[in-house]
Specification:
This is D-Tyr tRNAtyr deacylase-like domain-containing protein. It comes from Lipomyces orientalis. The protein is α+β, with helices and mostly antiparallel strands. Helices cover 26% and strands 35% of the residues. Strands 1, 2, 3, 6, 9 and 10 form a six-stranded mixed β-sheet that branches. The chain has a two-stranded antiparallel sheet with strand order 4-5.
Length: 182
């Protein structure tokens, strides 16, 4: 199972010109189900996505790598739990989508599993049985929903499995992370 996670200020997905899901601050997950993926892959990847620390602590503000490097360690550090120093840049990567009470837009995307020889993509690694792929996609979304806790089922929003979709987003950073379950 492959996932591309993008930190966003907002995002939406449309089918046939109509918006079917939209989120504010959070992440967009593009999810590709591979032949041989299991429930264990779903659970592991959903847990990793929900707890991936790609958001800043409220006190850290917005710091770019060049700002923290030019400021030096004396101007931007605090003691960390292990006795070392934690820079403001470290605090940029301190919170997860769950801990900021953000939202997740999860889009199924078999094209993540493309292999390319010469100029034409092949999708022979993607799960060919739509019912199996959809079941695993739904499992990932259910596990991410449970990470938010009871009463917050609306924090994870889907695309339309198997549909031709238009995804719009305002990438924040940009921050884009690739994950795999194996």
């Amino acid at each position: 199972m492959h996932a591309v996670i993008q930190r966003v200020r907002s995002a939406s997905v449309s089918v046939d010109g109509s918006v079917v899901s939209k989120i504010n601050r959070g992440i967009v997950v593009l999810l590709g189900v591979e032949i041989g993926d299991t429930i264990s892959d779903c659970d592991m990847l959903a847990n990793k996505i929900a707890n991936l620390r790609i958001f800043a602590s409220p006190a850290s503000g917005s710091v770019t790598p060049s700002e923290s490097e030019s400021a030096g360690s004396s101007g931007v550090s605090t003691p960390s739990a292990d006795g070392g120093e934690m820079t403001r840049l470290d605090k940029q990567w301190d919170r997860s989508v769950v801990s900021i009470d953000g939202e997740i837009l999860c889009i199924s995307q078999f094209t993540l599993l493309a292999s390319v020889k010469k100029n034409k993509p092949s999708f022979h690694h993607a799960e060919r049985q739509a019912a199996v792929a959809n079941e695993l996609y739904e499992r990932v979304m259910d596990k991410m929903r449970s990470a938010f806790g009871e009463g917050k089922d609306n924090k994870v929003k889907p695309g339309v499995f198997g549909a031709y979709m238009q995804v719009s987003l305002v990438n924040d950073g940009p921050v884009t992370i690739q994950l795999t379950s194996r």
